[in-house]
Every structure is written in C-alpha cells, then in structure tokens.
Design goal:
Two copies of one chain form a homodimer.
Chain A (H helix, E strand, L loop, with lengths): L13 E7 L1 H4 L7 H12 L2 E8 L3 H12 L4 E5 L10 H9 L3 E3 L1 H10 L7 H5 L2 E3 L3 E5 L3 E7 L2 E4 L3 H11 L10 E6 L4 H14 L4 E9 L2 E10 L2 H22 L1
Parallel strand pairs in A: 1-2, 1-3, 3-8
Antiparallel strand pairs in A: 4-5, 6-7, 7-8, 9-11, 10-11
Chain lengths: ~250, ~250
C-alpha cells in the first residue's frame, strides 16, 4: 500500500493570466500584476499555469483568450477597461464569447455613485459597456467595474484597482488542494549539488524540486524549493534534500 | 500626394519573449526580465509583440516556442539553462527544432575558463549541452553560455546574466525603424478627455495614442503617449493632442 492511498486525491484548479496592453510590451510600464496574482492564486490553492501579454489589438486579445479559456479553470485578464479609445478589452471579450455588448444599467448605477450626471460623459459611459451575460466585479477604488463571463475574469490594469477586484473575486472561486512549499538555503553552489539533487528528485517523482541560485553575503548560494500538494511527501523529500546538503557539505570540507 | 510618400516605408522587426520557470508562475520569484527586454528592444528598433510565461514542462516549452518562432522575427527565452535537473530549456529547444543535443566542445572550453577539471562535474557539464547547429552566446558573468538557433535566443533567467547576454546578442540583430514616442502630462482626468482624445486618434490613424491614468501630487492625472515610426506624423498628432488638452482645460475652468 502506497502512502498516497491514505489521503484524498488532490483537487487541481488551474489558471492563466492575460495581460493586455501596448505599454507593457513597449517597456514603458513595468508590469506589477503578474507576480501579485501569481502569489495570490498560489496562496488560495489555484495553480497558475500560463501567462500571456498581448497588445491592444482585438484579434490578438480574442485569439489568446480563446486559447486560454478552454485550457484552464480560470483566466484573469488585466488592462484595457478604462474610458479611452485604446481600451478595447470589453469588446474583445464579447467577441471572443460571441455575445453582444452594451451599456449595462448595473454598471451605470455604480458610476452614478461617483460621478454627477454632467460628468458621466461618453468616455466614462464606455466603462459601463459590459458583454451580455456577464456578472460585474465591484471596484471599491474608482467604481468602474470589471466583469466575469464564463471562466474569464476581466480586471483593471492599475495595480491598486486590480488588487481590490481580485479581493472581490477570490471568495467566489473554486479552489484546489494547495501546493505546499518548503525552502532550504543550501550554503553551497548550485553546480556542486546538481548531481545529488537530481538523484533526490528522481527518487521523489511526486514532488517538484526547484533549484534557485543567488548571491548571499558569503558568495554563491542556492535555495532549494520542494513543492507538493501532499504534506507528507513534501516532508520526506525535504528531509532527503537536507541530508544530501549535509553530506555534500561534509565531503566538501 | 500624401506625406508618407516622401519617406521610406518603415522596416518592421518583431519579437516575442518566452519566460520559462515554475518559480515565476508560483509567484515565488518576481520576473524582472520582461520589462527590461521590452524597453531594450524598443530602444533598438525591435517591436515586442507578445510575451508568454510557461512552466518547466517540456511539452509546454516546445508548444509555446513553436507557436512564437513562426510568428515573429525573433524569440528571446529566459530561464532553465542552469546546472540542475529542473533546467530543461536546452533539451526542449532541441526538441522544438527537431535537432539533436550534446555536449558542445566550445561550451566546455568556456566552462574550463572558470572551473578546474575536478569541479566540472556532471551538473556543470549539463550547461554545455547545446542543440546541434546552435551558436553560443557568451556569458561574461558566470561563463555557462546561452545559445542562438534559428531565430531563437536562449538566455539565462538570472537578470544580471540575461542582461550581459542581451548585450552580446543585440549588435547581431536585424533592427527596424524605431517606434518614436512622445508623452504629455495632461493635468486632467482620463475620463474627462476620453471623448476628444478618441477624435484625435481617429483623425490620426497612422499613430498610436495611449492614455495612462495615474495619481500625481495634485490628484488624478493622465499621461498621453503618442507613438509612431514617422517623426512628422508623431509631431502633428502630438500637437493636436496638446491643443485638445489646452482647449479642454480652458473649457473646464
């Protein structure tokens, strides 16, 4: 009887991020959303499997969205839902789903909380255009909502607003068995322990072992990260990694 | 006679970035390479059109690489060329190109510059495995080279090493007509000027006009960025944007 038979099979929920915006591809704006969402999803038990960044071009957004939404449990988009002509995400998402798009009375009501009638001009009304069948995602910062259609969550590109929207969305998501992770600082050079580490990895195929070199105060060093959805397997593999590090360290002295 | 007939047609050279690494998707490591490469390419006249981030999974790397390399002039990959078992980029690139991979004498010679024979263990020798037909990319930081095969440039994930490799690669690349860009801080809220800005954009279809809201010391503000490969068209469109901002500002007072 293998150890894994004693535990429930893991529930796997996956995701992709689609970042939309010429300003990221030109390098003018440095993305701050990918890392934030990645860490956030990991913490709630959703496994981020792919990220794409595409320009403000309808066909590119539609193609990427349709490729991602059939492959992963969820797709999170950032960017392109503002009030100006270059904000084309909502229209592209409607096109990807083959649904119509129009001013949404619920979104208009949200905008009225912030803007007087005379300020609700054509540009701001653009932000109330929502694909048919979508649910709104509240925006506590600046009111203009994101939306959810099918398994796609359309959020703002401005980090503070995206983060507020993600907080609204997260409790509604199906989550899976969290991937647990444990890190040990080897105090050794990656190239020195690559061989024995590969043997540990081979002996523990159900955990993922990553090796990340960095410079510590005393010179080249390596973080070894062991990841698994199974706490016991993680613990066993990490013990092997630590044993390997100790043994290698003694041999090296 | 249109103004564009007086100038040479622009040369367009495109690129994609493929970031390889579980640590980026888990959020453990925050990518610093996308923004750096994006800005670098823009500055030398190469247009970054797409970015993908994929995990350390051979099939995912192969599929993404094959999708990107047929679409863009160049593909730049980062990550997965270190000495440990989870570094599988070189093998995946060989698989994508359908070529063999083996220890490369040129790469071994580079490693010997840094490592004594007894330190050139199996793990470090892993970093000398290069797909058949590839040219090496020198690594001035830690010797283990990247490589170029076809239109694909395979670079390290560690930012300092990637940056050194990009400096080596850049002079060998074909570059296109630079996309010029000019920015004006509107001093106005994005939603206030979205309408007139859309009219300017419509009247100048050959330039790209982006609108990026931000918070300045005095409150909500907007940067308007005009981009074009044609300096004259950019100047004309930017003059229109500034005129619009002045007129709107006066009306608003």
């Amino acid at each position: 009887m293998s150890a894994s038979q004693s535990s429930q099979p893991p529930v796997i929920v996956t995701a992709a991020i689609l970042v939309i915006g010429d300003e990221i591809l030109s390098g003018r704006t440095k993305d701050k959303n990918i890392g934030y969402i990645a860490e956030y999803l990991t913490n709630i038990g959703i496994e981020l499997r792919e990220v794409r960044v595409v320009p403000d071009v309808t066909d590119e957004i539609v193609a990427a969205l349709n490729a991602l939404r059939v492959r992963y449990t969820y797709v999170f988009t950032t960017g392109g839902i503002g009030p100006t002509h270059d904000d084309i995400t909502a229209d592209a998402v409607a096109a990807a789903f083959g649904v119509s798009i129009d001013y949404d009375p619920r979104a208009v009501a949200m905008m009225r909380e912030r803007f007087a009638a005379e300020d609700l001009n054509e540009a701001r009304m653009r932000m109330t255009r929502i694909p048919a069948g979508a649910e709104l995602i509240a925006n506590s910062i600046s009111k203009a909502p994101g939306f959810n259609i099918g398994n796609v969550y359309v959020m703002a590109g401005v980090p503070a607003i995206m983060q507020a929207m993600l907080d609204v969305v997260a409790p509604t998501l199906r989550t899976g068995t969290k991937i647990l992770s444990d890190t040990v600082q080897a105090g050794l050079r990656e190239g020195d322990i690559g061989g024995p580490l590969a043997e540990v990895a081979k002996a523990h195929p159900d955990v993922s072992i990553g090796s990340y070199p960095f410079w510590s105060e005393t010179g080249p060093d390596t973080n070894i990260v062991v990841r698994s959805r199974d706490a016991e397997k993680l613990q066993v593999a990490m013990a092997e990694v630590k044993k390997m590090i100790r043994e290698y360290g003694q041999r090296a002295r």
